[in-house]
Specification:
Layout: H1 4-13, H2 15-34, E1 41-44, E2 48-51, H3 59-66, H4 71-80, E3 86-90, H5 96-105, E4 110-114, H6 118-129, E5 136-139, E6 142-144, E7 148-154, E8 162-163, E9 175-183, H7 184-190, E10 198-201, H8 207-212, H9 215-221, E11 224-230, H10 231-248, E12 251-258, H11 277-285, E13 292-299
Parallel strand pairs: 3-4, 3-10, 4-5, 6-9, 10-11
Antiparallel strand pairs: 1-2, 7-8, 7-9, 11-13, 12-13
Length: 302
């Protein structure tokens, strides 16, 4: 189901063409989902062997239908990755981005793939192993702002699974488990990581906590950051704090994409925008930011 704020955003900001594209996408997507037949082995992006989770209503169904996920962010990720890079991938899910990273950085690079959901984690490991690059380590934990144990929501949509915050309500089909949580600073120190080129995270509103627990890591390594910001979970105040904090640390936005545009059919490369943190904060203050959006941030050193 499409959130009403997403519909409002498209109607207000998308223009006629975007409204038509979005309408066609949602109708077409509904038809395809109702007729889907899962294939065990699926190529993603036309070339990477990949296995999805049968009956997963989230990214698995999306990959079965479209063979890709977040096409605009995928385009940026492929362009930014280089041989020998070290990537920390938070909220790896079943491994879509981790597989792309593994194949581009090569055997001399390294991926630290972190996924809290035990169901997603099994698929993540399998998909990375199938690449036969031996350039990854996978961890069934979460990253946050404290070293502790927290409740985790397992959703029927794998990419909606998330750390439970403030005793938030859950759907009747959700499950609750306990998971270990570490700060990124602790994780980096424990694993003797000496280089980080890209930090990617899609953690359903927990990005605020991760950044709070990553001060030493960001200061020391100054990685490029790919992050989906979930304003609908964070609220305006925490969204503002994230970007003010990153700006104080020397970061600036390189690319910005409204999440709804990062979909097949709807999005085009021209929807990838270059705006500053100050411009984004103005959008936030004027209530013209979507509920979720992607940003790529780069440190001034780079």
């Amino acid at each position: 189901m499409v959130h009403k704020n997403t519909i409002k955003f498209i109607l207000k900001n998308g223009g006629f063409e975007k409204v038509i594209r979005a309408t066609y996408f949602f109708l077409n997507d509904k038809i395809k989902r109702s007729n889907i037949r899962f294939k065990k082995n699926k190529l993603i992006l036309g070339k990477y062997k990949f296995q999805t989770i049968e009956n997963d209503e989230g990214i698995s169904t999306e990959l079965q239908i479209y063979e890709s996920h977040e096409p605009l962010t995928t385009h940026l990720m492929i362009n930014e990755l280089k041989q020998n890079m070290v990537c920390i991938d938070l909220g790896s899910n079943i491994g879509y981005y981790a597989v792309i990273e593994s194949n581009i950085i090569g055997k001399s690079g390294k991926i630290f793939a972190i996924e809290p959901s035990p169901i997603n984690f099994l698929a993540l490991k399998l998909n990375l192993e199938n690449q036969k690059k031996n350039n990854f380590s996978a961890y069934n934990i979460a990253i946050g702002n404290k070293n502790e144990e927290m409740e985790f929501i397992i959703s029927t949509k794998s990419n909606w699974s998330k750390v439970r915050m403030n005793n938030e309500k859950i759907n009747s089909t959700d499950k609750i488990i306990k998971i270990p949580v570490k700060t990124l600073d602790t994780f980096v120190n424990e694993n003797n990581i000496t280089k980080i080129d890209i930090l990617r995270m899609d953690v359903e509103g927990f990005e605020y906590n991760i950044i709070l627990g990553a001060n030493e890591t960001l200061e020391k390594f100054k990685p490029k950051i790919f992050v989906e910001i979930h304003k609908m979970y964070l609220g305006k105040e925490k969204t503002c704090e994230i970007f003010k904090d990153l700006k104080n640390k020397g970061y600036e936005i390189k690319y910005y994409i409204p999440r709804i545009y990062d979909s097949p059919i709807i999005g085009k490369l021209k929807d990838i925008k270059k705006i500053s943190i100050n411009q984004l904060l103005n959008k936030l203050n004027n209530d013209t930011l979507p509920d979720a959006f992607q940003v790529v941030l780069e440190h001034s050193r780079n």
